[in-house]
Amino acid sequence: MTAGVNVPPAPHKGVPRLEDRVRQTAARFPTREALRVGPRRVTYAELLEVAEAWAAVLGSARNQDGPATVCLLAGRTFTGYVGILATLCAGATVTPMAPEAPPNRLSAMLQDTKPDVLIVDQAGAAALAALAEHCALPPVFAPMVAPEALNGTGISLLSVEDDRRGRPSSTADIAYVLHTSGSTGRPKGVPITHANMHAFLTAVHARYDFTEKDVFSQLYDLTFDLSFFDLFIPWSCGGTVVCTPPAVFAHMPEFVAKEGLTVWFSVPSAISAIHRMGGLRPGSFPSLRLSLFGGEALTLNDAVAWQQAAANSSVENIYGPTELTIVCATHRLSPEDEAIAANGIVPIGTLFPGLEGMLLDEEGRPHPQEGELCVTGPQMFSGYVNSADDEGRFVRLDGRRWYRTGDLVRSAGDDRLLFIGRMDQQIKIRGYRVELPEIEYWLRMIPGVDAAAVLLVGEGTEQRLMAFYTGVGMDSGRMKAKLHEHLPAYMVPHEYRLVEQFPINERGKTDRRALMATVSAPISAGGA
User: What is the Cα–Cα distance from 191 to 51, expressed in whole angstroms?
Assistant: First the structure.
């Protein structure tokens, strides 16, 4: 094993593998719909048949005796969805990558992962030429791409006609590797095992009564860990996965009714997007019975607005970093949330069974009320692909290893947790410690403001707070006066900028770096 690379954990005996769960579901419900992608309807029997055929090709391409790895350069397409399952059916580890990502970032992921095969869809195939200029490519499998579209790329192509006898399937204990942004600019690989996923799936199915009659939305990009919830929760109970492009936000009530969605899952920012397009009227989504929101903070205002539109649905805030396997805590919206919520954000709730949490103060000591949330248990990953990335992300206390989430959390009693903000959103200005989410909360309370983000800009004595907001443009003096009613002077931003909408990153979250990049631009007339 190369120095500086974490050694995968030993296989867990008797733990159900993800692909075996899908095989069992296909045996129970062969004719039920497993997947809808645009007009295409795929039954469980068809899904598994194609996945197994592709898995045989992947197995024939292995160039090592150990566990195989496959990178998936595809979006939310038939190739993308089936490619994930096919890789698992081959006993290999899958690493999804976004075709639209910069070639140098994709190259870093390939060098980090060292895959045996690269699966591509149309968008992935279009990215190959530029990617090949940055690094050597493994054999490419493009089952749904015309061969002429790949001419001239100088790559080795696999096809379904290749010798399928190949080598026996490996049994990689790692199910998938996802890459998160790193502080050094190099993406960090997060390996999640089948055992981690077994603990996660067990907890989720114990909490929710999902059945083969459920129809699930699927909005998350395949490089986002929540997409594995989107796929393997339905595929382990016989439900249907419906690819849900953001374009449907313009006619959401019609889409939800047409597809018969019963479970909705998205980032909270989708709520305001749907609202802007007129699709969030009371009673708009009567078929929904469960609505889940994760990936970023869910405000009470947005949660209540969604609850009114989906009156028959339970609304839940779910929480969990990639390193803790998708979701590790959840909270169901209730009338008492307004009294206990911090900064107008729906509580994180309680940790899943089998997980333990601990709060650390600024000195790294356990604190009973408030601090950085640390978690340990069967959903915790063992460490990043590159062991150098582990530095500062774990703490060892009481003889156990805990993952440091970087989230500032407060206990509300009864094991309930409140989200205060990211540790990197806790700043100091003029000697005062400031929580940016608190300022953002009071900004959202100003009539006419829909969403808000506050940044610390400038350096040294030029440091100041700048507020960005969406909604109705208004005089900055009026905004300052409103904030002064609730905040000390040092917490009131100096500058205010109205934007049509916040930029979002590839994971659907507000892109604060993109906002920061606009700071040198002139302030819009509506926000001055």
Answer: 22
CB 190 within 8 Å of CB 95 = no
> How far is 130 from 105, CA to CA, in rounded Å?
12
What is the number of other CB atoms lying within 10 angstroms of the CB of residue 33?
A: 20
Question: Could you give phi then psi for residue 425, rounded to 5 degrees?
Answer: -105, 5
Q: Among 179, 197, 28, 210, which Cα is nearest to 102's?
A: 179
Report residue 458: phi and psi, to 5°. 80, 175
Query: Using one digit for the tens of pLDDT, what is the confidence trace for 18-50?
Result: 999 999 999 999 999 999 999 999 999 999 999
Give the Cα separation of 110 and 501 in Å (integer): 33
pLDDT in tens, 193-252: 999 999 999 999 999 999 999 999 999 999 999 999 999 999 999 999 999 999 999 999
Tell me the C-alpha distance between 150 and 393, whole Å: 41
Strands 370-376 and 400-413: antiparallel
Which helix (DSSP H) or strand (DSSP E) does residue 450 occupy? strand 449-457
Helix residue ranges per DSSP H, 248-407: 252-259, 269-276, 300-309, 337-340
Which parts of the chain register pLDDT below 70? Answer: 1-13, 62-67, 151-154, 161-170, 181-186, 426, 428, 430-433, 460-461, 506-508, 520-528
Please state, in angstroms and rounded to a whole number, the distance separating the CA atoms of residues 288 and 189. Answer: 35
Name 34's bridge partners.
Answer: none
Residue with tokens 């419900």, as numbered in its chain = 29
User: What is the pTM (predicted TM-score) of this model?
Assistant: 0.83
DSSP-derived secondary structure letter, 366: B
DSSP secondary structure letter of residue 362: T
Enter the tokens of residue 73: 């350069």
Sign of the alpha-carbon torsion through 484, 487, 489, 491? negative
